[in-house]
Amino acid sequence: MNLKTKIGRLVLQNPILVASGCFGYGEEYAPLLDLSRLGGVVTKGISLKPRPGNSPPRLAETPAGLLNSIGLENVGVDRFIEEKLPFLRKQKACVLVNIFGESLGEYRKLAEILDDIDGIAGLEVNISCPNVEKGGLEFGVKPDSTRKVIETVRGKTSLPVLAKLSPNVTDIVEIARAAMQGGADGLTLINTLKGMAIDVKTRCPKLARGIGGLSGPAIRPVAVRMVYEVSRKLAAPVIGAGGIDSTEAALEFFIAGAGAVQIGTGFLINPRLPLTIIPELVGYLDNQGLKGIESLVGNIPADKPKRRKK
Amino acid sequence: MEIETPEIAAEAQPGQFVMIKTREGREPLLRRPLSLHRVSSTSIELLYQVIGKGTQALSQTRPGEFLDLLGPLGKPFPLPASSSGIILLVAGGIGIAPLLALAEQISERLKVKGQRSKANLKIHLLYGAKTKAHLVRISDFQKMGIEVSTITDDGSGGRKGLATDLLRKFLVSPHGNISAAYACGPRPMLKTVAQLTRNKTVPVYLSLEEMMACGMGACLGCSVRARASGIKYLRVCQDGPVFLAEDIILD
Q: A110 exposed, middle or buried (CB, 10 Å; 0-12, 13-18, 19+)?
C-alpha cells in the first residue's frame, strides 16, 4: 500500500507529519523514533533574529487541551541553518521549515535565505500567533495582509509554500482564498485557538501572559470543520492539524478533505503515535477497499449526516 | 509507588525524572513529571503527594497494573567532587523525594571506596514539612549514617519553622567545611536557599519543578530564567531539573 500523498507541489512519502513547536529541531526526539519514517517534520517557527520567548508559566492544562504561551522562542535563522538543519538532514527527515516575521521585510528575507539552502522540502508560513505583542503577528486575521505575506514569500522562493492559518478569524474560507491567491501550494489548518485559564486559588491567569493558544483534542471539531469548509469551497490542498491523538482522529481529517495531517500536542504526550498510526492507516484503507490515501481524501459518500444504526 | 522497569532503571540516575501518563485517556491530558525517589537494578520508586488531577489519578493505580512511562529524563545530580567535608541536603515537603535517591547513591559510592573515606564525608539532612505526619523516610536516611534535623510548620515535631530556618542556623554554626549542598522543595524555599548560600564558594544544586508538556526539551514550555548573559531561559526538563543555584534566577 502506497501512502504517498501530494500537497500542491509537495510530495510526501506518507501523510503523517509532526507539527511545528512540538518537536524542537529534531535532536531531542531522534533517539526515540526514526525521523526518516515520518511523512515530514515541521520545525519550530524560525525568525530572522533569535527570540527568547515569553516569561513562564508558559503552559496550562485544560479539559482535553493544552494552553501554551511559548512566545515563538527560537534560535534564529542563522543558527538554525548552521546548527539545527544539518542534524535533521543526517536523519534523512523530510524537513518543512516554519517561518514567521514581524514585517513583510522579515518574511522576504527569511524566504530568500532559506530558498538557497539544501535539505529543505518546503516552507510553512506562520501568519498568526496568539502569543506575541500586538502588531507583531496578526497578518492572518485579514485576507489582504494574508495574501501579501504569502506573495512576499512566494516571490523569493521556488520551494513549496504552505500557509498555516489561524482559526481566530470570522471567515476561514476568505483567509484561505487569500493565501491561495498569494501563491501558496497548500494550507495547514489550523493553528491554536486563543484561550485562557484562571487559577481560582490565586485568582490569577495560569499563563504569565494571560492569553495563550489552545491545542489538543478539545479543538479538533473546530479544526475538522475548517478543513471541511476550505477543502470543499476552494478545492485547495490542505494539511489538517488540531487535536489528533489517534488513527481515528487522523481519519476524520482525511475524510474531511486533508491530504495529510500534523500531530502536535498528541505527539508531546505520545511520541510513538505517528509511527503507530501509519500501519493502522494502511489497515483501514485495506478494509475499506481503498487504493491509497488520495482515494480517502474528502471522500464522503453522500454529504448528509447518516444516523448510526443501533 | 514502586514500578518494575528494568530499561529505565538501568539508565536512571538520581536527580532525573520520568513523565508518567497517570491515567489512560484524556483526563488528565498531559503526562506528569515525577522525580526518582529510589533506583534499584530493575525498578524505580516514586514518592508523591496527592495535590491535583495527575497525582489523584496516580493514587488510583493498583498493584499489577501497567503504567506508561517516558524516561529517565533530565540531568542528574552531579556527585560531590571531594570525598571529605559536609554534604548538605535541604528538603522542603515532598522535595524529600529525589534526595533519598541521591543520598543512597553517595552512600553506595563511599562504601565502594572503603570505610576510611566514609569517615571524612558527613551527610546532613535538613528537612522541613507541614506537620510531623508529613515527615517521611527519616529512618532510611538515618540508616546510612546521615544526620537528620527536622522542623515543621506547626511545630508538631518539636521545632517550628521552615527548612530554610534550619539552613540559616546550620550556616552560622561551626560544623566544618561544606563541600556541596543539594536542595529540593517549593520555589520560595529554593529562592531562600540560593540567597542564603549566595556568597559561598561551594556548589549549591537546586532541583526544580515546573509544568511540563513534553518533558524532552522540545516544546519549550518549562522555562526558568537563566543568569548567563546571552541566554534568557533554560529548560527545566532538559537543561535541569538540577541547576547550580548561581546559574538561574528564581522569581
A: buried
Structure confidence at residue A141 (pLDDT): 87
| pLDDT for position B112 | 73
Q: Which of A99, A120, A116, A123 is nearest to A48 (CA)?
A: A99
How is chain A split among helix, strand and coil, in percent rounded to 5?
A: 35, 20, 45
Are B3 and B46 in contact by the 8 Å Cβ rule? The answer is yes
* Domain regions of chain A by residue span: 5-53+72-192+214-301
Give which of A292, A288, A310 is closest to A301, Cα–Cα: A288
Looking at the predicted structure, is the pLDDT value of residue B118 above 60?
Answer: no
ipTM, interface predicted TM-score of the complex:
0.93
d(CA B95, CA B8): 22
Pairing of strands A260-263, A16-18: parallel
Q: Output the nine-digit C-alpha cell for A157.
A: 522562493
Pairing of the two strands B121-129 and B85-92: parallel
The answer to whether A59 contacts B26, with C-beta atoms less than 8 Å apart, is: no
Task: Specify whether domain A5-53+72-192+214-301 bears CATH 3.90.400.10.
Answer: no
Check CB contact under 8 Å for A53 and B210. no
- Determine whether A204 is an active site residue: no
Minimal C-alpha gap between A268 and chain B (Å): 5
Please, which residues 69-128 of chain B have a Cβ atom closer than 8 Å to chain A? Answer: 70
